[in-house]
Automatic annotation (TrEMBL):
The keyword Repeat applies. Keywords: Calcium, Metal-binding, Repeat. Pfam families: EF-hand_5, EF-hand_7. GO terms for molecular function: calcium ion binding. SUPFAM superfamilies: EF-hand (SSF47473). This is EF-hand domain-containing protein. CDD domains: EFh.
Amino acid sequence: RTFCGTRARAMSTPPLSGARRGILRRAFQKLDLDHDGQLTASELRSSFSGLADNRVQSGELTETQVFAELLSELLPDGSQHILQDEWEEYFASKHATLSDDAFCTKISRMWGGLPFVTQKRVDGLEAKLLDSLSSQGAEREVLTRIFRKYDSNEDGLLQLDEFEQFCGAFGLSQAKCSSDEIRALFERYDLDDSGELAFREFSAAMLRQAE
């Protein structure tokens, strides 16, 4: 599907970062009330807030008008629903010029105040994790041994809950950071968007930071 006004932008739209992809996924899941993997007009309206649009704040347009405009772009040509990949494609192109934090703020405000973590905060968490790992020697052999300790089924992958245990052992306990913050860090490393963290993804990030 080609969305209205997005064809030219799509030519130069960069891949979604972990932060952008994460908040778009959470928004989609929140709106998908019947869990059928697609969004209808009524589902979109259920959590939409026009306050993210400056034209509503200025009084130029009403929230109803802004939603109708958005709907015409998300569901063009009489479409009855939008799929998750189309949803991500639309917003990736529509707001490609925004910084990650500005993008996440906009999506959060547009769809009912979804939680998100600023990139500055994720940078800080990553630095703490690296410092803790460095105390044991941030070398591939050390990282391999530590990673395997939390890879419960020995498949070379960490699920989010396993990654949270891993982080807790290296300075990022629940007393110091929230589950949302750990998830944001997880999304940064999950480069292939698999929902699982491969050792190669994590070690590449840690070794690059240590250089």
